[in-house]
UniProtKB/TrEMBL annotation:
One of its GO terms (biological process) is DNA-templated DNA replication. InterPro entries: DNA_pol_HolB, DNA_pol_III_delta_C, DNA_Rep/Repair_Clamp_Loader, P-loop_NTPase. It comes from the Bacteria. Residues 235-325 form the DNA polymerase III delta subunit C-terminal domain. This is DNA polymerase III subunit delta'. The keyword Nucleotidyltransferase applies. One of its GO terms (molecular function) is DNA-directed DNA polymerase activity. NCBIfam families: holB. Its EC number is 2.7.7.7. The gene is holB. One of its GO terms (cellular component) is DNA polymerase III complex. It holds the Pfam family DNApol3-delta_C. Keywords: DNA replication, DNA-directed DNA polymerase, Nucleotidyltransferase, Transferase.
Length: 329
């Protein structure tokens, strides 16, 4: 469990939190918002650990008894709100774990910190009950709401919280993290970082997923043959994708990235910017066969396929149209 120093990106938010600690101006309620996997929980945990750390610095020391308790997830004054129902956090959850509990002073620290993950799942009743505590909290209470959808929270709650929106992390930083911390090879780290679009959690998941490695291998094999596929091969490709439907959006992402590489190489004749450097010969060959217009038509067709699948259009039909467009252009 890292301190602020170990967190990739989000430097402005970290600076804001550390300044609040340094100046003794910690708010009673914060909202960390951003998509799933972007690092909300890491930031909230590092903030909670720092507030409780016995060294009173702007980064947790990771060695005092408070930090050790937090790292082993049994700090009595850092409370992670849990919920029985998977899709909602009800008034009983909030009442028993926060509202009734907040009246009791901290056991061993300066603060009592409540972390509510998936705060968008708070029911209306739970939010209204929580509002009273946010309006009149005890001096030692800090409530951290983590959400991927701030619009699901009542305006009366959001207006009383410090709002911290997490932006995507630079692709180069994500790639560096994958290579240094997870020892992922260069070309794979670049592919995972590009696909993750600045989401470090997603990048990590892709890098460690055997499923995704197989998807990438299948996708690249299809793309190598896509220009001169016979009809029977087209049917086989659609069958293969149909059997792996749950990963279809990963396939489409990979197709888009590959054809963007082809377009980039056609325009610049340079290898440096390519995501799929290891596919250079196939990319070069495709760039020689397709026109700029043709490549843009293909990239457009991949997006259309994605939209049609979201709208539940027949899977085989969507794929057939896509591969015919790839073949013709």
């Amino acid at each position: 469990m890292p301190g602020f120093e170990e967190i990739v990106g989000h430097k402005e938010i970290i600076r804001h939190l550390q300044n609040a600690i340094r100046l003794g101006k910690v708010s009673h309620a914060y909202i960390f918002s951003g998509e799933t996997g972007c690092g909300k929980k890491l930031l909230a945990t590092a903030f909670a650990m720092t507030l409780q750390c016995e060294q009173r610095g702007v980064d947790p020391c990771l060695t005092c008894s408070s930090c050790k308790k937090a790292m082993s997830k049994n700090h009595p004054d850092i409370i992670n709100i849990t919920h029985e129902k998977p899709n909602s956090i009800g008034i009983e959850d909030i009442r028993s774990q926060l509202i009734d509990d907040v009246a009791i002073k901290p056991y061993c620290s300066s603060y009592k910190i409540y972390i509510i993950s998936e705060a968008e799942k708070l029911t209306l009743q739970a939010q209204n009950a929580l509002l009273k505590t946010i309006e009149e909290p005890p001096a030692y209470a800090v409530i951290l709401l983590l959400t991927n959808n701030m619009d699901a929270l009542l305006p009366t709650i959001t207006s009383r919280c410090v709002k911290l929106g997490l932006r995507p992390v630079k692709e180069s930083m994500v790639k560096e993290y994958l290579m240094e911390k997870l020892h992922i090879p260069d070309y794979q780290a670049k592919m995972d970082a590009s696909l993750a679009q600045g989401n470090i959690g997603k990048a990590k998941q892709l890098a460690q997923s055997e499923d995704f490695a197989q998807v990438a291998e299948n996708a690249l094999r299809l793309l190598r043959r896509s220009g001169d596929m016979e009809l029977y091969e087209l049917v086989d490709a659609i069958k293969m994708l149909s059997a792996d439907k749950q990963n279809i959006y990963d396939y489409l992402d990979l197709f888009t990235m590959w054809f963007r590489d082809v377009l980039l190489f056609k325009a610049t004749r340079e290898v440096d910017g390519l995501v799929f450097k290891d596919q250079f010969n196939d990319i070069k060959e495709r760039a020689g066969k397709s026109s700029y217009e043709g490549l843009e038509t293909i990239i457009d067709a991949i997006e259309k396929a994605r939209t049609r699948l979201h709208a539940n259009v027949n899977f085989d039909l969507v794929m057939e149209l896509l591969f015919l467009t790839i073949k013709e252009n």
